[in-house]
Write a sequence for this structure.
C-alpha cells in the first residue's frame, strides 16, 4: 500500500558543511518555520557534504546543531531520510537519535492525491559504469560496518556478515594445513591469494597484508586455528581494496 500524505515538503542536496553557514542557517529556519506546517518532510539524500560516521555527529558542534534541529522537527512532523551519494554512511544511531524514518531509494508516495516516485537520482546514472560499481561496493553492509568503526575487531562481524559477504573473493583452505600452524607466506601462496611465496613475502614485508583486520608485521607470522572467526573464517585484506574470505574446513 502506497503511504498517503495530505501535504509534504521535499529537500535534497543541501550539502551542509560548516564552511557554508548561510545554507546551514536556511536549513535551520526551514526546520523551525516551514517544515512543521506540513504532514511530512522528505530529505532525499546528500543533506551533508560528507559523512564519515555517526560518531562524528557527537564530536562536531556543527553536526550536533544539525542533529538537534532535525530531532526537534521530527517531534512536530513525520520526517523521512533517504541516503544520497555523499551521505550513504548515515547510520542507525543518527537515524534513531534524530527521530527520522529511513526510506529506500526509490520509494513511492501519494501526496495530496498525486503519486510520486522519490529517488536521490544517482542510481539512474547508468552510463557512469565506474560510479555504479563504486555505488554497489560501498552499499555492502559488512564494508560499511568496517569503515564506520576503524577500530572494531574482525570478531565484531557476525557469522551471517561473513557468510553473506559480496564483492570479496571466496576461497577454501584445508583445516589440516592450519592445525599445527602455517607461516603466513605459505598460507598466502597455498590459498592462491598470491601467486608465489616470493610475491607473498614481498607484500608482507611492505605492510600490504592484514588478517582479521590485524596488519601482518613479519613473514614469521603464524596462521593457526586460533585465528578462525566463528571457528571457520579468515578475513584477508591485500592492499587497500582487495578482500578475501577464506573458509577453512
Amino acid at each position: 500500500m502506497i503511504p498517503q500524505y495530505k501535504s509534504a515538503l521535499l529537500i535534497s542536496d543541501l550539502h551542509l558543511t560548516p564552511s557554508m553557514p548561510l545554507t546551514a542557517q536556511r536549513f535551520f529556519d526551514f526546520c523551525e518555520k516551514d517544515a512543521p506546517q506540513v504532514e511530512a518532510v522528505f530529505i532525499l539524500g546528500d543533506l551533508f557534504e560528507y559523512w564519515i560516521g555517526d560518531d562524528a555527529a557527537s564530536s562536531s558542534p556543527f553536526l550536533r546543531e544539525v542533529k538537534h534541529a532535525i530531532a526537534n522537527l521530527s517531534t512536530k512532523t513525520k520526517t523521512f531520510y533517504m541516503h544520497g551519494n555523499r551521505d550513504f554512511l548515515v547510520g542507525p544511531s543518527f537515524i534513531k537519535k534524530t527521530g527520522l524514518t529511513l526510506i529506500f531509494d526509490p520509494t513511492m508516495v501519494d501526496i495530496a492525491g498525486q503519486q510520486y516516485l522519490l529517488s536521490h537520482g544517482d542510481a539512474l546514472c547508468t552510463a557512469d559504469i565506474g560510479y555504479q560499481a563504486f555505488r554497489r561496493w560501498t552499499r555492502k553492509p559488512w564494508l560499511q560496518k568496517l569503515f564506520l568503526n576503524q577500530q572494531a575487531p574482525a570478531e565484531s562481524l557476525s557469522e551471517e556478515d561473513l557468510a553473506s559477504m559480496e564483492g570479496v573473493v571466496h576461497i577454501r583452505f584445508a583445516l589440516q594445513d592450519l592445525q599445527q600452524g602455517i607461516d603466513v607466506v605459505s598460507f598466502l601462496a597455498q590459498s592462491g591469494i598470491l601467486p608465489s611465496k616470493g610475491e607473498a613475502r614481498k607484500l608482507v614485508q611492505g605492510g600490504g597484508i592484514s588478517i582479521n583486520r590485524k596488519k601482518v608485521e613479519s613473514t614469521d607470522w603464524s596462521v593457526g586455528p586460533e585465528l578462525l572467526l566463528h571457528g571457520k573464517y579468515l578475513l584477508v585484506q591485500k592492499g587497500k581494496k582487495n578482500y578475501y574470505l577464506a573458509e577453512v574446513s
Notes: The chain has two domains: 4-124, 156-248. The chain is about 30% helix and 20% strand. The mean pLDDT is 89.
